Amino acid sequence: MFKAVDKEIINNHNLKLISDLNSDFDHLRKKLERNKVNINDIKNKIKNFQVAVPTWGVGTGGTRFARFPGIGEPQNIYEKIEDCAVINDLVGITQKVSPHFPWDNVSDFKELKEFSDSFGIGYDVVNSNTFQDQGEDNLSFKYGSLTNADQSVREKAIQVNKEAIEAGMTLGSKGLTVWVGDGGNFPGQISFSKSLERYIESMKKIYSNLPEDWKVYLEHKPYEPAFYSTVISDWGTSYICAKELGEKAMCLVDLGHHLPNTNIEMIVSRLIDLNKLGGFHFNDSKFGDDDLDAGSINPFELFLIFNELTLANKNGKLKEISYMIDQSHNVTDPIESLILSSNEIALCFTKSLLVDYDHLNELQDANDTTGAMQLLKTAFNTDVNPIVSMARYENSNAIDPISIYRSLNYKQNKSKVRKSSKGSSSGIV
Ligand SMILES: [Mn+2]
Question: What is the pTM for the complete model shown?
Answer without folding.
Answer: 0.96
